[in-house]
Write a structure and sequence with these properties.
The chain is of the alpha/beta class. The protein is 32% helix and 25% strand. Helix 1 runs parallel beside helix 4 and helix 1 packs parallel to helix 9. The model has no long low-confidence stretch (mean pLDDT 95).
Length: 416
């Protein structure tokens, strides 16, 4: 069966691209391994998701949802001292960019999938891609098996890999590259009835520090639930031979007074989850007949909640670029050179801030006290306004801690 585009994966990246393409009238098929709704981590949106959500027609749905509204981020020291909230409305319009959401991904991703379906995208669930079809030096489609084990093939002039952390084609092609430094482990669970801050701060994301530059996230959700997890180096979390996720989590609670106090009012529910090797990159963003989108292209450490932003942003950009290519009859890898460069700029800007954050000698406060004008630029980067010139900010931060060079990844693999 032939389509204009095949999309592997129905997460935010895949449904964003599908929505754009279907809206333009292209025949789009999303192939999803699981049955929605399904569980996923990555629940805190940042302000500059606004533009992608607006382009996708999702804002009315978000505004009438049960998702908790998020206006700020706050940081908490080990001894429980809490910073003043960083309110987004001090920098952006209060009624648009400055108000975002804390989502339950099973619900948000289903909303995104339904939105793509409403625009005309076709979806098949519980179907696993078993391989790529290669013809004449290019990807010409995919082989799949459905839930009953029935095999079939789908073809299109371009296939979009939106498989998230699995990074299907990056792994198949040997393109997956680890970040030289960012290799943390996370352990997380959910609490019902955890304490929250009053009023406008009820939906704030809290980053609460533990030793060795580790940190907790505390993300309020609807139905009185809170997502809470700890991120740190594996050797720190498993010190003294402790490897059980629940034991690790409960020990780290004692390392931050604010976390200990807030969770004392709640009840852990839903079990404990673990993941590792957060940060990774794909050497190439495209090859003949193939385009990588979202986490399949790159995923950064989650400390600044950039994952969904980059998924939405790449999904919208991919949809627009593929649409142009279909109209022009040109889907060569060269067409996606600007796409790759734009996304790499986003990633490298956020990556520099993440590296700085984890350096033992770094403090946002120190930078802003010496260079007050950097406060706004730091807020912009943390909020997802990442495609701009931050050279002044990086020069200032480099006086405090070393910053990484850009990685030479994400370029198209041109046809032989």
């Amino acid at each position: 069966m032939n389509y204009d585009a095949l999309i592997i994966g129905a997460g935010p990246a895949g449904t964003s691209a599908a929505t754009i393409l279907a809206e333009y009238g292209h025949r789009v098929l999303i192939i999803e391994r699981e049955k929605f709704p399904r569980y996923h981590i990555g629940e805190s949106l940042i302000p500059f998701t606004f533009h992608a959500l607006e382009r996708l027609g999702m804002l009315p749905k978000m505004r009438t949802s049960n998702f908790v509204k998020k206006y700020s981020v706050t940081f908490v020291q080990n001894d429980g001292r809490r910073s003043q909230p960083f309110y987004f409305h001090t920098r952006y319009d209060k009624d648009t960019i400055a108000q975002t959401w804390q989502v339950v991904r099973s619900e948000f991703d289903l909303m995104m999938l339904d939105n793509a379906r409403e625009k005309g995208a076709q979806i098949i669930e519980e179907t696993t891609v078993t391989g790529l079809i290669h013809e004449n030096g290019r990807v010409a489609g995919v082989r799949v098996k459905d839930a009953n084990g029935v095999a079939s093939e789908y073809r299109a002039p371009i296939t979009l890999d939106c498989t998230g952390k699995e990074a299907l084609t990056s792994n198949l092609n040997g393109w997956r590259m680890k970040d030289p430094y960012l290799n943390k482990i996370a352990v997380w669970t959910y609490y019902k009835g955890s304490k929250r801050e009053p009023g406008m701060d009820e939906g704030a994301t809290t980053v609460a520090f533990v030793p060795n530059k580790g940190w907790f996230w505390h993300i309020p959700q609807h139905d009185d639930m809170v997502s809470v997890g700890v991120v740190a180096e594996g050797k720190y979390l498993t010190r003294d031979g402790v490897k059980d996720p629940e034991a690790i989590f409960n020990r780290e609670i004692q390392e931050n007074e604010w976390i200990r106090d807030h969770l004392s009012a709640g009840t852990a529910t839903g079990g404990y989850h673990v993941t590792s090797e957060y940060s990774r990159h794909s050497r190439h963003c495209a090859s003949p007949g193939l385009l990588l989108v979202g986490d399949a292209l790159c995923f950064l450490d989650p400390v600044f909640s950039s994952g969904v932003l980059l998924a939405l942003k790449t999904g919208v950009m991919a949809g627009e670029e593929v649409h142009k290519g279909l109209l022009a009859g040109d889907l060569s890898p060269e067409r996606f050179t600007d796409y790759g460069a734009t996304i790499r700029l986003s990633i490298e800007n956020m990556r520099k801030l993440v590296y700085a954050f984890y350096h033992p000698d770094f403090s946002f406060k120190d930078v802003v006290m010496k260079y007050p004008e950097c406060g706004g630029e730091i807020t912009d980067c943390l909020s997802g306004d990442v495609n701009k010139d931050f050279s002044n900010l990086w020069a200032r931060i480099s006086e405090f801690v070393p910053l990484p060079d850009d990685l030479p990844y994400g370029t198209p693999l041109l046809a032989a």
